[in-house]
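Researcher: Here's the sequence for the chain we discussed earlier.
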Amino acid sequence: MADAGNLAGRVIAIAGVGGGLGPAVAARLAEAGAVVAGANRGEGEADAAVADLGLEPERWDGRAVDLTDEDAVAGWRDAMVGRFGRVDGVVHLVGGWRRGQPLHEEPLADWDLLHALLIRTVQLTTRAFHDQIAASEHGRFVLVSAKQAQSPSNGNAAYAAAKAAAEAWTLAYADGFGPGGATANIVVVDALLTPQMRAENPGKEFPTFTPVEHVADAIAWLCSDGAAEMNGRRLALTMP
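Model: Thanks. This is the structure I predict for it:
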């Protein structure tokens, strides 16, 4: 994979920056020169996620945003445009999972929750930021998804179905961009390996897990000019 290159001056929003992947992605984008705008649901969660990164105030904006609420997402977009003048890309990291049960036993309430977290947030961010992404010379949307979307199991039916729907929405979003314009792509993982997991399990091997740093590198590359011709694609960071 080519180096992410120079993202200097580009404004990239991270939806769900407070999750296990968020700090690594924010750090990688900032390292490449981007201005990073992070959102998470709880008050102060976005700032807490990047507290150790030492990002300069002019290159960071953290906000509490209910990403399942259309008006709240539109307000986040307006705040970004008001502060930075534009938004060049959105990275969608919002996650959620419920312990798998056979699909005929899994409560439908689990589906309702996963629909809100994994599908509705993708719908709202793509719609709210569409005009900014489409107008940017470097417009990018990146979704992080899971191997289960393409290889569903009976015990994770709701999760797999929600991830598959989010992928389909993203690929349809990509189809709306013409050649040489904005792009929308998907990074696929099986499971994430975070620094906290390494610290809590010294010496343990995680053979099917993808380090968050690798995912962050892939996202930075997809946001770069090196990936300008890649649109509507899945980039798999999984074991065979």
